[in-house]
Amino acid sequence: MLTIENLHVSIDDKLILKGIDLEVKSGEVHAIMGPNGSGKSTLSHILAGKPGYTVTQGSITYLGKDLLDMEPEIRAREGVFLAFQYPVEIPGVSNIYLLKAALNAIRKYHGLDEVDAMDFLKIIKQKTALVEMDQEFLYRSVNQGFSGGEKKRNEILQMAVLEPKLCILDETDSGLDIDALKVVANGVNSLRSAERSFIMITHYQRLLDYIKPDYVHVLADGKIVKSGGSELALELEKKGYSWLEEQAAA
Amino acid sequence: MSTSAQQIENLIGKNYKQGFVTDLETESFAPGLDEVVVRKLSAIKKEPAFMLEYRLKALRHWMTMKTPEWAFVKFKPIDYQAISYYSAPKKKEDGPKSLDEVDPELLDTYKKLGIPLDEQERLAGVAVDAVFDSVSVATTFKGKLKEAGVIFCPMSEALQEYPELVEQYLGSVVPHTDNFFAALNAAVFSDGSFVYIPEGVRCPMELSTYFRINAANTGQFERTLIIADEGSHVSYLEGCTAPMRDENQLHAAVVELIALENAEIKYSTVQNWYPGDKTGKGGIYNFVTKRADCRGDNSKVSWTQVETGSAITWKYPSCILRGNNSIGEFYSVALTNNYQQADTGTKMIHIGENTSSTIISKGISAGKAQNTYRGLVKVLKSAKNARNYTQCDSLLVGDRCGAHTFPYIEIKQPSAQVEHEATTSKISEDQLFFCQQRGLSPEDAVSMIVNGFCKEVFKELPMEFAVEAQALLGISLEGSVG
Fold first, then answer.
1. Domains of chain A, with CATH numbers?
2. ipTM, 2 dp
3. What φ, ψ does residue A244 adopt, rounded to 5°?
4. How many domains does chain B have?
5. B223-250 pLDDT per residue, tens
């Protein structure tokens, strides 16, 4: 589904990613861990097409196409979804309006008719239940006055409604208490399928207790310094990152 | 400039859909203004003597006045002698008696503008008066309104049919001495709409006037007078467009509303005069005086305006809250793009006891535009327990535009409660990217964010106007991100 080769990315002439190689196949869940400043969020931003970054070398192929050649909204319509670390507020725009506009933009791109209002309500009802969200949230302005946990759940709701192929979760677990974490994890787990892949960016092993990854990668100083199965996360939890950073520097 | 700010810049660059010119035979005065012109105008319209005297009084006063300079707008001095003060489609015989007799070119123009003049569009439930250049060309649904006792006709007709009503109320809210442009209007206004709702009547449909400036080198000076008698209710809509021309055209209208005891007037405007091109060439100078007098106890006036057009807008729809318990409301969205300038707001003058007013103003500035809110809340000694709530929000799109807020508050009554809130925000790159990441194009994203920002005002508009206003904001911001 996704192939990243020798990816070098800089921001304001400062090199952040220094040669990333990653292969994500359909249905796989990859966790990307690493210390602060290792380039984890940069990787998620570059996949989603956030402006301000420069790719100096390397390529990203998504479903056989050059991902870097696509505008952010085209990537989204092609099935790339980023659950933001800091979801933005949009005053005056209701959650349900945004969801409907987004779903229809994606449907239109694929040559489908706009979703029927009644069908849409049915979809929404089912998906809000998935993230244990009150219907009332749908009519509030996007993320305005939401708690940290509610914002993150709202991201998962959007993911559930838009049914992307590649889901990137950027520190979705940060700022969540254990109950909210479980809700978010349940939501993600219910969306796992053979056609859908996940890249989870996280600091902590905690999230991986609830969403079991197929692969764990450690990012340090702009490079993947170690890859392994889910047991690698446990090792990191015990030993921290410093031994890997030293290894990388050596 | 960051990438996203650049994108926003690129999106600004609008298409003005109403910029066509209609080819019609017109009858126009030569440019220039003096007593002869005013007398000729009055004579053409066969006006009663009081009207001519009023016009001459206003002209003499205007000659002594200077263009006001306090507004936060810049423009070259206007040569008032270079403007033609009367232009009308040439009438066949005595003018149209029904829609069938209206010049088909004209009807076509209104069709292009999406304005239903045909009575078959009955379902729309809106009675329309269309003012083309200086004269009213067609008013629909007259019969049905007459049944209810409602008078809705061109001002020129009101002067013939109901001169005593006009004489009693015209100039009673905005006197001819009020300001430079109001004085000019009083001297040379050519037509406009007249509405009278009799005691206890709830007007059975929305009333609407569409103004269109077509001819070159003319000014449009219309005069609207709405009287809601005791216990009556009316909702009135106003729309405006003009062709694209390189020179600036002057629009100096006066609107007077009078609400007697327990009466209610809701006045909504969607103003989309030609704003000029991307370099700031051409466009309408919209210098308008709008004022409501809540004369009776428990009366209510609500102004809702969506301003997206004009090169310069200078406009402060106001309420004089004279009656006890009277209510004034002002809901405004003003969008400026490219080189547009808007200095707009309201005045709420509290005179009666327990009067209350609400002001919600949303200013959106894009391109190199300047957007100013200017508002006065004045509570006189007599206005015991007066209350006001003001909220002014400004939204900036891109980083070369400006937003300004000038609130004036004068309180002479210690029991008054006045609240003022103001915010200024920018469409952030993060908001834009978030929306794109959900599949929306940058254009749709900006339009959605701006519409969200304006929601509190849009919900005050009548349904069909709200849809129009949202679409209009979309068009006006076209090219503001890319």
1. 2-249 (3.40.50.300)
2. 0.95
3. -75, -40
4. 1
5. 999 999 999 999 998 876 655 666 677 8
